[in-house]
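Weekly sync notes, structure subgroup
Attendees: PM, AL, DS (notes)

Item 1: joint prediction request from the bench team. They want all two components modeled as one assembly rather than separately. Inputs as received:
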Amino acid sequence: MTPDSLSTTFAALADPTRRAILARLSSGEATVTELAEPFDLSLPAISKHLKVLQRAGLIAQGRKAQWRPCRLEAGPLKDVTEWLEHYRRFWDESFDRLDDYLREIQREEQHDHDE
Amino acid sequence: MTPDSLSTTFAALADPTRRAILARLSSGEATVTELAEPFDLSLPAISKHLKVLQRAGLIAQGRKAQWRPCRLEAGPLKDVTEWLEHYRRFWDESFDRLDDYLREIQREEQHDHDE
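Output from the run, pasted for the record:
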C-alpha cells in the first residue's frame, strides 16, 4: 500500500532538519552543498533528507549536471493548509470561550468592587 | 533527544486513520469503542493510534472510570497553521504567475485572431 500524499507530506515535515531546509529554500534556490553547510551534516545525510522532501513533492532539483539547485515546491503545503481549514473553528472557538470567561471574571470583579 | 513538538504533531498526522479519528472527534466527543467502529480495527490497534494522538496533545481523554470520552485538542493544529503561514506567499505567488500566464495566452490568441 503506498501512503496517501497527505501522509507522505506530514511524514516529511516531521523532522526539524527538513523543516530548516524548507525555511532556507523559502529565501531562494540553493545547491546541496549550500544546504549542507549550516547543518553540520555530511553530504550523504543531507541527500537523504532531500530525497524525503523530493518524494513528498516539497522540493524539486534542477537538471543541470554541474549545479543542480534545489527549490521549494509549495503545492503539498497548500494541501496541508486546506486540510487544516476544517479545524480552524476549534481554536477560534476556544478563543471565543476564553474571551467570554475573561469578560465574566471582569464582571464579577466589578460586582465585588461595587458591593 | 526528545523530538520537538512540531515534529511530534506532524508524525502523529502522518497516518490516514489518525486523521480520520480527528475528523470524527471534530463533530463531538466519542468513546474508544465508538471510535473503533467505523475503522474495522481491533481495540488494541485503535488504542495505539489514540496514544500517538494523545502524546502529540491532539486529543485528550476524560477521567471518568467507565466512560472515558476522547475529545479533540486543537492547540497543536494551530501551531502547524502558524508554521505554514510563512509559506503561504509561495502558493499565492504561483497563483499570480498562473494568472499572468493565462492573461498572456489570452492576449496572444486575441492577437492571432485579429491578424
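Discussion: The CA atoms of residues 7 and 91 of chain A lie 23 Å apart.
Action: AL to compare against the crosslinking data before next sync.
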